[in-house]
Amino acid sequence: MSSLRTLATLSILTSATWPQLALAAPTEPNSLANPLNTPTGCQNCHSYGNIEPHGDAPYYAPFFGWRGSMMANASRDPVFWAGVAIASQDDADETILCVRCHSPRAFLEGRGGAISIDELQPSDLDGVECEVCHRSIAEAGVEPGNAQYTIDDVPVNGTVPRRGPFFYETEIGAPPHEWIQDPTLGDSRLCGTCHDVTTTRERVDDDGNGLGFAFNEQRTYSEWLGSAFALPGEGFRSCQDCHMAAMTEMPGCFENANAGITHATGGRRHDLAGANRFVLELLKGIYGTAGTDEIPDFFYDNALELIDLLLPTAATVELVPPSEVDLSVGLSGLEITVTNNTGHKLPTGYSEGRVMWLEVVGRYGDEVVYSSGRYDAAAGIEQDGQLRTYRAIADDQADGTTFHLLRNNHWVEDTRIPPRGLSPDPQTDPVGDRYTLGDDGAWPNFDIATYAFPAAPEVVDATPENADDDVLTIDVRLLYLINTPEYVQFLADENVTNSAGMDVLALFEDAGGAPPLELVSAQVTIPITGFGPSAASSSGTGADTTAGASASTSASGPSSSTGAATTASEESGSGGDAASEGGGGGCSCATPGTGGSSTLLPLGGFVLLARRRRRRA
Predict the structure, then answer these.
(1) Which residues of the chain register pLDDT less than 50?
(2) Displacement of CA 417 from its chain's centroid (Å)
(3) d(Cα 351, Cα 329) in Å, to the nearest integer?
(4) 78-90 and 277-287 are packed helices; what angle lies between their axes, rounded to 10 degrees?
(5) Distance between CA atoms of residues 319 and 484, nearest Å
(6) Strand order of the sheet with strand 392-396?
(7) pLDDT at 377
(8) 382, 400, 409, 395: which is closest to 352 by C-alpha?
(9) How far apart are CA 149 and CA 97, in angstroms?
């Protein structure tokens, strides 16, 4: 390659000396002399099958991972456009920040004012595309957030180099295009370009007093930056470490894969996975084989598989049960600890219409004896006094209006679980009294909920002749819903601009609604006594039995399970949360969640409309 030596020299220079001296930062619309190349050009070389030893792993070719991800589909997301239409009604001048992040090409080519997908060009639909990242420069003086990206526009031998982690000593295995080794691609700050969002309204306190800084709408990057994950050392984990899995044997391109040539330093899958599984399923129906056939189902199926691999890594649930339960008295002292294993709040990101919660169900055989937070098809989340939610609710403090992103200026609550070692900062602190700073001066990365249930004298021993099966089975699930029915209905009802909200409502109805993800589950069995009288009992005293110490199902210790999650917030009803601070227990009886979808269960008693409302013109 004629330019290899030149590029090798350029690659060892710091980003402060080359090439941004010739750039304006951040990049503004219609300022690029060298427009972004389209992802289809990257596809030709960066789509290839796995080689050993990763033959059975998810596809790690960059294009394969990216194509079906929400990053690639950020500008196709119908929920996004429904939200933009309402945001434009609230503040038409501010929605350009939304487009800047979700469709960088549209912004860079002067279409950042779009408030409908119909206003985009076909090439704008590729969302956060290849060269947005592989031409990005970490520009001194440009703070992360609000999609303030600086795009390299300095050509070498006629083309702008692609930036990445690889360095090539010789032309063997080197790409046929210009390249620069740049650590920016592996730095969490690059992710912070879009994953911190600040609006123009001043944040206020509960009394409406200004706090002196703009509203911190999303702080995923800042949550990471203030956590123990950002500290150098054994516990360091970057955004890429979790969302772009490292591979030891990585070919740079199709030709290298065929020749068995891999890079000495390995590489990363372009999973770019989060938790927005249901919307990806909707997009598959719209743009996949059964829809417009623009994107083969393979890409969406691969992305869904990658989500299911990521989710079980993000949380742990531990159960500490009482030693036994007397049904005539009730259950008390059931302790559930949810630990956040991620490098950001659990869940994180955009808060509107999102909620994570604990579902607790105690059964004797098939009979439900106790429950909290059950998700039922007709009734939604069970609104009991012990319902434990993890969410962030923002509003316009002056009138309490929620769901209006650009009107938000006040956090009503933020009970999302902090990441490990999160330092106090008003931009990332929890809101409310759920959490207390630890002795190390950091927020805890876990939440402890203690449950108690009343007597259940109506439960009858089904097998009075057998004491060994007298047990209560407690099942706990950590569930997560990204788009609650209330939020979807809001998108339809509040939009007076176009049909985007009604279109989303129709999509959700046709699909049976958005099901919650089961992030993690755990189970424990507890011996029970104090059954009520049997209908066949002549004495009327019942046929109570007691599980002795030799019973194989005795509650001899805590139960735990690992799983995952991502973001949450609004949920109807405000059932009280019971909590206490303390330690967890050991591990047994774990049942990881699958990360897949379950049956639609509307939230807070909301039932999806049997008939669609008339669409606005």
Answers:
(1) 1-22, 538-556, 562-617
(2) 13
(3) 40
(4) 110
(5) 28
(6) 401-402, 392-396, 410-414
(7) 59
(8) 395
(9) 12
Strand 267-268 vs strand 315-320: parallel, antiparallel, or unpaired? unpaired
Tell me the CA distances in angstroms from 299 to 59, 249, 305, one per residue in order.
10, 22, 10
For residue 339, the SS3 value is: strand
In three-state secondary structure terms, 494 is helix
Give the pLDDT of residue 85: 98
Nearest residue to 70 via CA among 263, 209, 277, 322 = 277
pLDDT given at position 585:
36
H/E stretch holding 415: none
For 273-424, where are the alpha helices, taking DSSP H only?
277-287, 297-310
Dihedral, CA atoms, 319, 325, 328, 332, nearest 10 degrees?
A: -40
Tokens 């006094």, located at residue: 385
- Please, how many CA atoms are within 13 Å of residue 81, restricted to the half-sphere of its CB? 25
For CA atoms 604, 394, 190, 107, give the dihedral sign: positive
Q: CA–CA separation, 166 vs 252, rounded Å?
A: 9
Three-state DSSP at 519 gives strand
How many C-beta atoms lie closer than 10 Å to residue 466's C-beta? 10
Residue positions counted in the chain: 617
Token digits of residue 254 = 């199709």
Q: Which two tokens stand for residue 229?
A: 């994950």
Cα atoms in the Cβ-side hemisphere of radius 13 Å centred on 570:
21
Total Cβ atoms within 10 A of residue 88:
22
pLDDT of residue 139: 86
C-beta of residue 108 within 8 angstroms of C-beta of residue 123: no
Bridge-based pairing of strands 325-326 and 315-320 is: unpaired
Sign of CA dihedral 285, 289, 295, 296: positive
